[in-house]
Design a protein that fits this description.
By secondary structure, the protein is α+β, with helices and mostly antiparallel strands. The protein has one domain. The protein is 30% helix and 26% strand. Strands 1, 2, 3, 8, 9, 10, 11, 12, 13, 14, 15, 16 and 17 form a 13-stranded antiparallel β-sheet that branches. It is elongated and about 125 Å long. It starts with a helix and ends in a 12-residue tail after the last strand. The relative contact order is 0.13.
Length: 507
């Protein structure tokens, strides 16, 4: 066997092995499976894991922007006119300290307990003005809360009405942004607190939230099942809420919005429990996006989350009573707000029934500015960008025993909306990109083997072609060729044929 034929055999065998192994690995997704197993092992809430420290102390800055609706025609509205508001903001704060406090492993390490502590620092350069100076005219929430609390008793309602007149507490109030956010002593609440010590004298939309937490959460670590990574087991010791009227409405499902399991699927729903809304919401895939070179899936709440009970029967449990059930896009959260007639929605009544925005002059819902969304890297589950947007409203309507409300029609009145935003920082983004590159290379290693097999196949074809060509040349060199000696010719009579002379007969 020649050296050339040996080379052909070696190349052929190598090509066959590479293609067989490569295609087998691709079909079996062996390396992809190994990489996914590695991710599932690394992304768990236990000491020493890749994500534990960043879960306890998230590095990207989170910004809280507050936008207020300043009422410009209070007197006209109280006389029956359409209310007019103009949006003022943002007043921006950074979560200067955002960390998990009192982190403790429980249930033999299967779960972890923690408190979400938040502290806010005002950012003047990202705000429209000074919150200590700027004033907003808005709904007097303490007054409406007290009025709704006593509306079932004629005598109590009459007494509160007299108090309000004596101290000048009206249906609307003008306060600084600082007061509305972080609290002020309300004269009506102070009067009520004298006989009801459980009532707070101070009111503020963010009162007691600076440097505080929402109570203890217990989370699954994800060690036993990666799908449980960051999933809430209990909140404040409860597996279920008690505010609503059905098991579905009271369910505590999903994460707290800070952690999501790896290997996300476009077809799944992600669930987030939000203490501010006193309920669990869900999000669905909308589109593919990219943030700082990181591919991500955008998840956003569909209209069904805040749909009316007619459009989504599951939401019937969120009705305070059968008579106190609002329409699509709004949720009355008074059961978890001490009876105050507070209503939650998306900003400017985005995704709500058009009648709510139409009832207020100055509302202009826009997807770009008012949509809530999460951009999650599907491989790691890391949040690369998020905007959580919610609006605080107050339900205004006639209240028996309070003559000043007699001209009012039922109105969901906007007070302010919040935009909580975060974008992954550059250092974290670089780490995620590196991890994704490694994951891609490992997952695609079988394709590299197939590619090498393809190259060897091309080499084999070239060698076989050369060998065939050389063989053809050799055969041409050894083939039969006709003799070219010319037959003898007679110079006179043409062709000369030489015959053997006859023997003499005589002889």
């Amino acid at each position: 066997m020649t050296r050339r034929s040996c080379t052909v055999y070696v190349v052929g065998i190598t090509c066959a092995v590479l293609l067989a192994v490569g295609i087998g690995l691709v079909v079996g997704q062996v390396f992809r499976t190994l990489m996914h197993k590695r991710l599932k092992k690394e992304i768990v809430l236990v000491e020493g894991s890749r994500v534990f420290e960043s879960w306890k102390k998230p590095p990207p800055p989170v910004y809280m922007q507050y936008f207020f609706f300043n009422v410009t025609n209070v007197n006209e509205f109280l006389q029956g006119a359409k209310p007019e508001v103009n949006q003022i903001g943002p007043y921006t704060y950074r979560w200067e300290y955002r960390y998990k406090d009192n982190v403790t492993m429980v249930e033999n390490g299967r779960m972890v307990a923690a408190y979400n502590t938040k502290s806010f620092v005002f950012l003047r350069e990202k705000s429209v003005g000074d919150p200590a100076v700027d004033s907003i005219t808005t709904v007097n929430i303490p007054a409406w809360a007290v009025m709704n609390k006593v509306k079932g008793s004629f005598w109590r309602a009459s007494m509160v009405s007299i108090w309000m007149n004596s101290i000048g507490s009206g249906l609307f109030t003008t306060r600084t942004v600082d007061e509305l956010l972080w609290g002020y002593e309300d004269p009506l609440l102070a009067r009520v607190a004298a006989s009801s010590p459980e009532v707070e004298k101070v009111f503020g939309l963010m009162y007691k939230k600076n440097g505080s937490n929402d109570g203890e959460f217990i989370y699954h670590t994800g060690e036993q099942n990666y799908m449980d990574y960051g999933r809430i087991e209990t909140w404040q010791g409860q597996r279920q809420l008690t505010f609503w009227n059905s098991n579905y409405s009271n369910s505590i499902v999903g994460s707290d919005g800070s952690a999501f399991h790896p290997l996300l699927n476009k077809n799944e729903r992600i669930y987030i429990f939000t203490p501010d809304l006193c309920r669990t919401i869900y999000m669905e895939f909308e589109k593919d996006v990219e943030v700082k070179g990181i591919p991500a899936y955008r998840f956003t709440p569909p209209p069904s989350v805040l749909a009316s009970k007619e459009e989504n029967p599951d939401n019937e449990g969120f009705c305070v009573t059968p008579k106190e059930c609002l329409g699509t896009g709004v949720l009355k959260v008074s059961p978890c707000r001490k009876g105050a007639p507070v209503v939650a929605s998306f900003p400017h009544f985005y995704l709500a029934d058009g009648k709510y925005a139409a009832a207020i002059e100055g509302m202009s819902p826009e997807r770009t500015h008012h949509q809530t969304f999460l951009d999650l890297n599907p491989t790691t589950g890391v949040i690369v960008r998020a905007h959580k947007r919610a609006q605080v409203n107050v339900l205004l309507q006639r209240v028996p025993g309070f003559p000043t409300t007699r001209t009012l029609n039922e109105t969901v009145f906007p007070v302010m909306f919040i935009n909580e935003s975060v974008v992954i920082d550059d250092e974290s983004a670089a780490r995620v990109r590196k991890l994704l590159l490694i994951s891609t290379m490992v997952s695609n290693f079988p394709l590299i083997i197939v590619g090498l097999g393809g190259i060897m196949l091309i080499v084999l074809v070239i060698l076989l072609a050369k060998a065939r060509k050389q063989k053809s040349s050799a055969e041409d060199d050894t083939a039969y060729s006709p003799v070219n000696d010319k037959e003898k010719e007679d110079p006179q009579n043409g062709t000369y044929i030489d015959l053997t002379p006859k023997a003499d007969v005589q002889a």
